[in-house]
Every structure is written in structure tokens, then in C-alpha cells.
């Protein structure tokens, strides 16, 4: 999980050069029946099956996939990208994902690197039906297919070779931005394939997903989550994922995001949060979702993408210290939200965290009387970290349920005095659960902790 990532991956000679359409078809000379359709913004390619009846039965979704590409390529103006499908197929008695015989799309400039990656993928398979399959055998598309959740990275070189077996080849071909989306048919209950988007640049998700949303609507296909520093995020249960998976409280969507600072990494992280929903046991907030206990992590950068889907964006934004807490309505156990806080790396000491928690619980007691800590125990926090390359956790006991100015951290440690905070005007105003969520949406809501 703390694996070193090599950013010195060399590029293939001529990866950024362009093919003419004739040169491209010659490059794919093993496909004698390759057909294409040219659009203003790119090309769509597909193979003509030798046996139409056999092809339609073995590949029932191909026409729908091709229609989806047509709708995307009409609007998507990104200068250098590859769109392709990984579809399930039984080979040698094993169920796997393959791009063979599936349509694909390339930007109008036909970059040699992306063309090379596409041809390499045709002969590659990810196994998705094997219970004992290794992580590298399942691979990135297989993980998305199995989990039914989007996976993306601002820079695919942040993957390990185990997480993404084709990482080095994709990087050699000039790949940077990466998005993989599970696709669902009209029943919306079973994943029928994975749409993979690879680009030589960072992929701006709000723009890309806006186009995908329109394309899905026209083709009848769908995907999860498409259809809607002291920094924090607020998560509430995702009805859409409950509809797809039947697990209402296994996934939550972000409803608020406020920043005390801004940079390009934070901006990318914020964008990714909109389309990568919180999953049970995934990331710090995901652990809180499954256990209902407050949780902290002193270094998010240690987590892998399989353990935290937003890991690459957190690394790019240099987010490290994270704390998350699950709040529940005192009137209904079904009304919950998770608030996630990110702190400056210099603020990892326990005294700073305890000071913050003391203030947080004061605010809850005075302003959020309709909310309580979902676990029912305010004085216990779960700390998560990496030990011996494995995710480990242990409990920190405050020892004092009312968060007194002195907190017994651990028996072998000395008690530390908390920083004193001055209450803000109107701090004793009371919010309902719905008012609290509305309050978090205010654009001028931005506060920070004292540096001392």
C-alpha cells in the first residue's frame, strides 16, 4: 500500500505522432474487416463479424456500445483520448473481460501512443469470474466490473503494477488521465461492461461526465453516480446506488464541500468527489459508514486505490491528516450523514486533534441538538494506518465522555492541555437536521482552526 511509484517511465518513440486513417488501418492489419465512421471530433472503429447471427448472440450489447460512442464523440472535444469497452466473455471455461470485437473511439488526431495501447489491449484479458483470482488477474477494469463503482486517477502512474497491470504500457504510450465506468443495461441490476477512457492529459470530470450523462440518456445505458487546509465534505445516503445494488446504506453521495484553501490538486479532488461516491469500508469515511465510529488517519497517502478510491486525488492534493465522524438524527436512525475533515500535514499532533474535537462536540451540543454521534460513544475514536503493508486499526479512548479540557490519551502517555477556543457569535443557535445540511451549502461558510 505504501508502494513506491516510478514517475520516470519513458515514453515510446513517436508516441505523440499522428497516423493518417490509411496508416491507422494498416497498423491494425490483423483486422481485415475493420470499419470506421468519421466525425468532426474523432473516429469510431468496429469489426464486421463474419457470422452476424453468432456475433449477436455472443456479443448482445455491441450495437448499444457503438451507439453510446457515437453520442459521446459528437460532443467530446478533448484533443487526445481513447474510449473502449471491456465486455464479459467466457474463454476456456473462464469468465473474463476483453476488448476484442468491441467498438472503440479515438480523437481525430489518431495519436500513435493511444493506438498502440488499443492494439495491446485486444490481446489482454482480465478474469472476473474466478473467486480466487489474484488482484493483478482481476486488474483495474475487473475491479470496476465487480464492484460496480467508478474508478479514476488524475495520473495513472500513481497506480501500482498490481492494481493496474497495463500501467507501464499505458504510460509508455503517453497515458495520463484515466476513468473507468461500470455500465448497466435497462434493468440496472447487472453490470454489462466497463467503459474505459484514457487520455494523454488530465481528464476534467465535470465536463466529461456531463457529456456521458446525455449520451447515457439517449442510449438507455447508465452508470453509477452519473445523473446528479481545513476542508470538509458531508456525505448522505445515495438513493441511486441503493437502486442499482439494493444496498441503501453501503454507498453515500457528497452533498457539501467547503475549503479553507485552494490549489489545482484540491480542485481535482473536489471534482472527483462529485462522481466517486463513498463506499462502505473504503477510505476513512467508508470505515465510519460501516462502523459508525469516528475515525482518523494521519497519512491518507499510505492508502491504496483499492482501499480508498480517491487515493490518487488525495496524493495529488497533498491531503494527509483526515478525520471523519458519522452523525445521526435523534429522531430517526435512518437519517445519517458523515462529515469528513482534512487538516494541514503540520497538524498531526494529538493535542491539535483533541482541541478540534472538543470544539466540534461543543458546536454539536449547542447548535446541532437534533444530531448525535451515531456510535453513541463520543470518547472513542478509531485510528487507521498502514502496518506491515496492511491496513490496521486500533481504538483511542478519550476516557472522559464530556471532553473535559484534559484528555487521557493512552495510559503510557501524559495528558495534554487543550487549546482554548473563543465561541463564535450565535453559537447557541439550534439547527434541525435539514437546516444543518442547508447551512453547509452556504458559499461564505469557511473557518479554520488557530495555528497554535
From TrEMBL:
Residue ranges of every copy of the NLP1-9 GAF domain listed in the record: 62-203, 234-371
Pfam family, one: GAF_NLP
Any one GO MF annotation of this record: DNA-binding transcription factor activity
InterPro entries the UniProt entry points to: NLP, NLP1-9_GAF
PANTHER family for the chain: PROTEIN NLP6-LIKE ISOFORM X1, PROTEIN NLP8
Protein name: NLP1-9 GAF domain-containing protein
